[in-house]
Amino acid sequence: MRAEILSVIGTDAIQEIQRCANIIGFNVPHRTVRDTSVGPFKIPADTLVIGQIHNILANSPVFKDSKQFRPERFLMEDGVTPNKEAVDQFCPFSVGKRQCAGESLARVELFIGIVTLLQNYKIQPVKGREVDMDAVFTITLLPKEQPLRLIPLTSEIL
């Protein structure tokens, strides 16, 4: 059953949900242990650096049209093979030794939650309203409150 679910759903849609709706705006602070550079920028040793995960996921050249929900950006043109460049830039849980310890649990919960929701409801915007994908910046990034229609799926529809 797991293989069937993964073959039907895959990881591209879940990755795109996380990219569009990541709740972490900033990474935890780190300190450089030696002189280094990031692109054209020189960073001296013992400098406090804070990565902006939201900017990476929203503004990377890999994620063009970042306000558009496009799961296919994580796949090559064949629709099956993962797009290595997109996967490598995808870092909703940070990277390195100090990445989120709860990543595995979060991925499972997200997958189960989305599958359960979509298995039981059709989700639509309220007629005449568009969904606003901009986040509200607090300690975490939150979606703006907005009306949506959750239409229960009956057994006849399934």
TrEMBL record:
Biological source species: Ancylostoma duodenale
Residues that bind heme: 100
Required cofactor(s): heme
Name of the protein in question: Unspecific monooxygenase
Coiled-coil stretches noted in the UniProt entry, renumbered to this chain: none
Entry-linked PROSITE patterns: CYTOCHROME_P450
Single GO MF descriptor: oxidoreductase activity, acting on paired donors, with incorporation or reduction of molecular oxygen
Similarity comment: family membership: Belongs to the cytochrome P450 family.
SUPFAM superfamilies xrefs: Cytochrome P450
Keywords: Heme, Iron, Metal-binding, Monooxygenase, Oxidoreductase
PANTHER family the UniProt entry points to: CYTOCHROME P450 FAMILY
